[in-house]
Amino acid sequence: MAVINYEPLDSNSDVTTTKTLLYEAIPLTGSIVSGTYNDENIKNFTHGMFQAVYDYPYLSSSANHIFDLTVGFSANSTISGSVSATQETKKINMYNQFAQVLLGYTGSENTVREFENDLTLDNVNTIKNALFINFSRLITKDQIKKGSFTITLGSGSWAAPFTDPVVLTDASASETGGTNNTVGGDYGVLYTSGNVARGVLFYQAGIAVLSTASFDSVASFYSGSGFSYDIAQSLASASISGSCDALRHRIRDISFNNTTEINSTIYFCRVPHNKYNYSANPTYLNSSEIRVKSIASDTPISYITTIGLYSPNNELMAIAKLSEPLKKDPSNEITLRVRLDY
Amino acid sequence: MAFLDNSGDIILDAVLTDVGRKKMADGTFRITKFALGDDEIDYSLYNKNHPSGSAYADLEILQIPVFEAFTQTNAGINYGLLSLTANEVLYLPVLNINEKTSISNTVKKPSTPTTGLFYLADTSTDTTTNLLLSTALAASDKFLTSNGASGPGLLLETGLDTSNVAGDAANKSTYLTANNLIDNSFYVYYDNRFITSVLGPAAGAKFDNTSLGLSGTPTLEYTLTTAPPITTDLQLSNYSSARVNGATDGVVKNPAYATTDTSVSNIAGPRGTFTVLNFTVKTNLSTEYTLYGSVSQDVFGDGKLYSYIDTTVYVQGTRTGAQRQVPLRIIKYISG
Questions:
Q1: For A4-11, what is the mean pLDDT?
Q2: Residues of B with CB below 8 A from A12's CB?
């Protein structure tokens, strides 16, 4: 039914906006991505250009998309033009796709930039062979929190990859420094515990670009029946999905904090002392007599449970509920702070 | 819809309604005012005579759990808190339906086949009303006729329904007029799938017990006209609203009258205003009987078949917010 009494909100004094950043810790264990579900949570596609990882067998409606994996290399890489190349064009295309979206183009030739193991983008210290991890929007939300990312990779043998773990972090990055800004957003550098740069992390895009250098010393990066590839051979000769399988085999855990940016409008609903002290609630009356009074001079009382926010046309736009009734009488004024998040 | 956790600090749970989201989608979202509600509160729990003292009078009320916010507007604020200028108000008006038999040209609920419903004849054919009149309900004051401008109509009165305050003119002035508790118009909410418009009293409507001298015999005069639809906070899905006029309820208590005021009015104390309602049933209402009602039923046990839809009309005073639900059966003769 129509509300009888409205109270105006002054757009200058009763309404304000705020921005809040919420962080959630996201721990991803390697067992989920490399074995818990017998790879039923790993989705490969007929085009073979990337591999999707879910937190549950992906045919289930309960499955959530966690991240995608793919590999690629620059056309300038020494791997490019390999004799035993497999999916070479697709791998170059993948690299270029990431590079053009995240870094853009440069130079008089307007060539796509290459990833670099630093923040300078001076075409020095480039990452020509890369492993890409694209985290889904579901878990990164608005962005990965700077300085919170850690990934532990195994650089041991194929049989026991984590005997020689490599921990990469972006600990040097923060909201106030340690990052560079590109067309793909902010990125920071991933360092080993020995402070060796081994990749970059794009925070807003939620993409980790790992240099294959972390696995340069691994003789058998990818092994199977009748073959054993080092990282360069894997990138050149194995399919993209095969290299992704190998990378998953060597991911022990990933953790980071995501960030949700909440923009809020706060409405200060000021209830004056002389208003809203009576109710149209049918139980308010007993034979027309107000139940909360004994005599006319008694103080009228009402109990607030609900705040309705209305448009100029009296349309109910938002509702706020108090967790318990709030007593209102002429002796008090109440300011109810209603926050709508967007 | 769960309850809110009320074990700790007071929290506010705020959500956009479906209307709010729609407005946000089309770029017209704008909030300019607020209102307060107390739908969960049962004020009968207020114990003025609590054995532990007046400080405990509202103990049970304050412990009432509150639901989470609904996103549908129809459960938002159904009644609302009121802002009255006067603090020393002990009585508030109610809105009652007057079915007193002493008043002609008003509709009354039949006692059979149902006891709680008002009937509204779908006049797709004249036969319908003739049959209702001649056989089924057997009296013209037992049903409304769609779009019937001359009645019978549904008579509603506002006032203080208490025997503690005599319904005389002085008390009306003291308790109602002085406290600005007079509803000069009423909102009527109706299901627009079945009803296309509401009829209310035209200017000059009259209801009193003073026109015929000391007999106290009631006089009710009105003609009905289509009330203008209004856009307001409808809240109920498929419901439209109209504003109908109210007119001064001239029934007063006078010990000299041969007919007592309470035998002509359904308000025991001072009366405020009255209104008379009728409705226009949607033309070609056919499929709706199948979808929302019952088709070809021997409603009256006379071998004749009728289709009907039960719906509810809501009436609300525009000043005091006093409400009344009117259960309505739209009925149409089919065969037999």
A1: 93
A2: none
Tell which residue, B328, B330, B319, has the closest CA to residue B95.
B319
Tokens of A84: 């035993």
CA-based nearest residue in chain B for residue A312: B32
Q: What does the block give as tokens for A266?
A: 């706060």
Q: Which two tokens stand for residue B263?
A: 């035998």
CA distance linking residue A297 with residue B294, whole number of Å: 53
d(CA A130, CA A93): 12
Distance from CA of B304 to the nearest CA of A (A): 38
Which pTM does this prediction carry?
Answer: 0.81
Band of pLDDT at residue A242, cut at 50, 70 and 90: very high
Q: Answer whether A267 sits within 8 Å of B34, measured CB to CB.
A: yes
Q: Which two tokens stand for residue A219?
A: 């003789």
Cross-chain residue pair A8–B33, CB shorter than 8 Å: yes
Distance (Å, whole) CA A174 – CA B48: 61
DSSP character at residue A38: T
Separation of alpha carbons B107 and B205, rounded Å: 17
* Chain B residues inside the 8 Å CB shell of A295: 90
Can you tell me whether residue B205 is helix, strand or coil?
coil
Alpha carbon separation from B210 to B10, B168, B171, B216, B303 (Å, rounded): 55, 12, 16, 6, 46
3-state secondary structure of B11: coil
Task: Provide mean pLDDT across the span A168-179.
Answer: 94
- Residues 100-139 of chain B with CB under 8 A from chain A are none
Model pLDDT for residues B66-84, shown as the tens digit of each residue:
888 888 877 678 888 999 9
pLDDT in tens, A130-172: 999 999 999 999 999 999 999 999 999 999 999 999 999 999 9
Angstroms from B139 CA to nearest CA on chain A: 32
Nearest to A71 by CA among A134, A112, A155, A130: A130
pLDDT score, position A106 = 87
